[in-house]
């Protein structure tokens, strides 16, 4: 980051920060994207099973990784004060925290998730795939959390490109193991949709091995001696937990609404469940663009506010929001023109493609609403204003989106479309309320 004098310089700075974040986020979404596409090509019932399993997995995944992300500001604080010796100590506190979170994850997913799936009245084959997928995914929760700890350490050191390159490795690892296990290549068993869960777990183990190798080789990282074990230090452990829990909780509340909609979809046919998952999965992939803009805005706005350059804060706010709308125009046009082809990536059945294409039309409105919401969320984080956006999101999703979807389904018999309409109404409510909050904050 550096101070700028012109809008052209500001755009250059924006993209210097934005592009590595975008590549990282696209790679981050790739595991779910690959699982969904490869499972959908194998069979619609398998995709439906994976869809119900991920409705349970994803909110919990965002919760625990959100907690781990608290390591970044903690290390940043130590580095700012020149307390390098405390960095390794706190990395190890988060390693211990990740072990506890992994155990809790095993208990919740291993015991409660099967009961939840059984209560949804799913077809026997869909239920079996969902249970097996979660069992296999549990085998990868420990390397996933340990990777999150080390990645947060790298990011705090300013090595964001290293994190990006490591995440890019996840895509070929995941695709390779998925192919072997879904289709049963050679002596390996043909596991179908459940094989995507085992493939993803093996990919995370392979990635963790690479990360450890990097830590042994990279001069800057090696100088910290992070791989030398440190004991449990309760004050630092408690600080990490207390700081991380609200971060993870905020992300959990937002992601859980989409999972809840997935559960409501369980009352419809397996083809509807699979089509909903396909459309939602591609929408999540496209969300990497506004999410990356949001993260970029948080970094830039906090930097400019720290330098007390209010005119630059306002200029960057306008630039970020404009770029988000331009990106949305491109992705929206792409999705509208190629929605049938996108649907065909996930499955071959004509009815599945028709349903998925229909749901993707609703996703078009997601794209534009996200372009209005995400930059403002980043701007407000730059102002350290997080309580009001959390409340606005809570009201928009849980107070508007879900009730509207439920009423449209049960009272007006709109079927699965009802929940997509509800999500859109909630997201657009957020798109109108957040700019109002931003204007209020920027007038101070």
TrEMBL record:
GO terms for biological process: monoatomic ion transport. Pfam families: MatE. Keywords: Antiport, Cell membrane, Ion transport, Membrane, Transmembrane, Transmembrane helix, Transport. The chain crosses the membrane at residues 12-34, 56-79, 91-113, 133-150, 162-182, 202-219, 240-266, 278-301, 322-339, 359-380, 387-406, 418-436. It is a multi-pass membrane protein. One of its GO terms (molecular function) is xenobiotic transmembrane transporter activity. GO terms for cellular component: plasma membrane. The keyword Transport applies. CDD domains: MATE_NorM_like. Multidrug efflux pump. NCBIfam families: matE (TIGR00797). Belongs to the multi antimicrobial extrusion (MATE) (TC 2.A.66.1) family. This is Probable multidrug resistance protein NorM.
